[in-house]
Design a protein that fits this description.
The chain has 371 residues and is of the alpha/beta class. It has helices spanning 2-37, 106-109, 119-130, 146-155, 181-184, 191-200, 202-208, 211-217, 226-233, 240-249, 262-280, 292-296, 303-315, 323-326, 331-334, 343-360; strands spanning 47-50, 54-57, 62-66, 73-78, 84-85, 98-103, 134-138, 164-169, 283-288, 319-321. 38% of the residues are buried.
Length: 371
Amino acid sequence: MEPLLKSLRITLRLLVVFVAIFLAAELVLRLTELARYGTIIHRAQVQTFEKGIGYKSIPGLSATLTDLAGKRNYNVTYDPWGTRIAQGENRPVLDTNFNIYFLGDSITASEYLPIEETFCEIIYRRLHAKRKDLVCFNGAVGGTGTQEQIDILKKFGMGTKPDLVVLFYYLNDIRPGVGFGEYLIPKALWFPTYKFCMTHSSAFNAIMNSSWSLRLFYKEDFNNFNWVETYQAKAWLTNEVASLKMIDEARNDWGSSFRPEARPVIESDLRMLKNFLDSKGVKLAVVIFPVRMQIESKFVEDTPQKVVSEILNGMQVPYLDLLPVLRGKATGELYLDHCHFTSKGQALVADLVMPFMTALTPQGPERSEKP
């Protein structure tokens, strides 16, 4: 009995020490975040967490960021609805305007570039030049999936009184959007618990985003991101077996949409969004982004696009699939990585999406009852 009590006392002491260290780290991180950004943040300088939603942009934030190359600084400013605007700009929400709300993830948010170089802003300025009462709001948030984007729309996006919502859909938006947590955490630590901790703890965020913890918590023998090495090897460009191997390796990222079990999840998400907007009298349109591999590979593997297209056709939702029009482009100049666009790529996306947006936009003032 005595050895057992001794072991329990040692365990208790170690637990107390761990909790004390964790709380001290939490305090230091929160004070640091508060001092640097004027708010408590958990992911990048322009995002925070909110209970029940996950990642969101910080409403009212204005911050100076450095681009990914570290060569220039630029401003990132968000309005009260968490949508990105130019510094010093007032983009009013008016019933008399035709308002368009953009939904998406980090590809659409593009907070790694000055606003004037992002495709959403380029599209807005072109549309606005033709129709002064047309206003676009970019509510995209990096690290989110479709389910979280719907939550963001309900809580913040509807405040912009949209007439049209455009969902920019990427192939990994099927997964839960909280930092791939469902796949990296141990089976015993269920996703809701993980999401709660990510939402409420700066220290937990720091731990889970550290390289050693990512390796520690990988499932399936560290294979979750092996696709990056396969991608860099470039064999998939001309070898179909290597291409299929990389898709399988990326099954917990963009490869998730290639899996047979993806269809019901994708359909459920899109129907949830469509039904909500229908109930508010708001139109929905979708733009489908490919992964870079689909554009460069000799072999066309467009299973996700076919699935999403079939679902949207069944729901009578207008959509634009960018894969056919991007194939064969000089992707080295268009992409920063496997999915995020350079300034040149952003301009090309704006050119490709602009006719689709023009077709969706009434040419003259259209008054409607706003939700």
